[in-house]
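go over this:
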Amino acid sequence: MSARAKRGQSIRLFLVDGSANGLIVASIPNWTGSVILAKNIRIAELFDREEAQRPGCYILQGEDLSHPMGVRAYVGQASTLSDRLRTQLKNKDWTDTVAIITTSDSNFTAGHFLALESKMIQLASDGKRAHLDNQISPNELAGGLGEADQADMENFLDQVKLILPVLDINIFRGAISEKTKQKANSFDDSEDILIIKHKSGVKAHAVIRDNEFIVLSGSSAISDERYQTNNYAPLRKSLIDQGVLKRTDKGEFLKFQEDTLFNSSSAAAAVILNRQSSGPKEWKHSTTGMPLGAWLDSRTTSNEISKEAAE
């Protein structure tokens, strides 16, 4: 039996002051929940909204150059969102974006939001798409929900996961798909493989899947510190400290121990070559030999690959 075709989904984005830089209220038809996004300079306006006086969950997001995706995040919940956020933002000055998640459904209780918070922390931790600032491990029994209430929370979470990427919050999208968990230098023949070859002998492979740039396990990187300028040096050090990049037995290279997401091809190239790098120029298409930027420009009939991820 063939898989059922995916259905389309409507998401309503309401620009509160008519500007994309202002508050954005995201909702789904016939759903009692809502997500409100505020950039740092507009957070005071968020506190004045009625939704911020309700119980709910919240996400803080900012920049972290030591993480492959360049993101730092924190997930929390509160009985009154505005009160909790005022306290949190004093301590988390790295925040540049706040999203609150709440509902007008009075049957959705504090227990639901406790369970929702725990589930979202688990998803963010497993997905590794951000440096997660939470110190407390998730608890599967958080909220003490019964079977029916647990199902309601899971259904609510499905809607939240649908909305958040539209608002450029991707920390719950999940870990790299099983398709990427392959042996070093073993590729799907149907995929376009990108490659970096360096005179030192370094060789790295990458793919773009679901608009994300992924350096594949087994790829190598320059091991020494010969270059003085590299804005991605903190990221490179972080990957070494985490064991994602390990020295080979002879010490001549560093090697990726797992498939690794990067927020751009340039970040990946800079980590591999340990210098400032232009990903669209350094990465080459393995079959055509074209630089990544030129290859993408040549694909005028395809909308499958995001140039943003490749820059």
In short: Residues 110-127 form the longest helix (18 residues). Residues 178-186 have pLDDT under 50 and may be disordered.
